[in-house]
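Checklist before submission:
- one chain only
- standard amino acids only
- sequence pasted in full

Submission:
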Amino acid sequence: MPSWLGAIPILRCGSNLFSAMKEKREVLNARMRRSAHALGIMAKAPLSGQVKTRLVPPLTPDEAAALSLCSLRDTIANVAGIAARQGADAVVVYTPVGSEQTFEDLLPKEFSLLAQYGASLGERLLNATETLLGLGYESVCLINADSPTLPSELLSSAVYALAHSGDPVVLGPAEDGGYYLIGLKRAHRRLFNDIEWSTAKVLTQTLARASELRLEVHLLAPWYDLDDAGTLARLCDELFSANGDHRANGYAATFTRDYLAQLIEKDGRERIWPGGLSSRPEPDR
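Returned file contents:
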């Protein structure tokens, strides 16, 4: 295991860290708003057996949690760079309550923490949007932590689209039918109601709600989530293959890349990156 990863504990069920779990609004590290725009990462603590479960197998629960941690680290670095260049504030919107210290240990000092609350993903997204707009931000982008190679220019495009007048909604379509980003200037509850979350209908239904509200929609380029064995192999293609396209447009995702390279070095490619191996070069280290 890489030394930088070993310093971060993989959280397990039953840890005292999670004894304070409850559904309530909680803002930590509250700082005065510095910008008109907020970039929020929707994040779940890397709890072994509770994150990236569709990656088990080929990964073990601990490996899936470690990969989730790496993806989160890369997303934090990506968003931090955009926040600095675009003059936005960065926030991690986290779950569960009680895992604050885990996130504190990961975050640059410029980041703030906001607890997720709500029974469904739609409620958590709506509540985070309402809370951040209520703090005085003019616009809010919520970004998933499951796309470690998400191109930085897509985040920049979202901030730019929301900087103009009007009441738009910005959506980053995920290739599985959901979205990796939603950006708003007003908390339109209808956008999050009656959505079949975690299905291929999410984007289509959200677009239908936006049409009902007569909102201007800005669609970003599609990207993919890391959530199963197929997308894990695709991520390896992107990061390690000579013809991978991450050098052209995807974020470098160095934490994720280094961890996957360690797994490949330890166990070979077949477990996490099967097929066409003879035509693929070894990961450079």
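Reviewer check: The first helix runs from residue 3 to 6.
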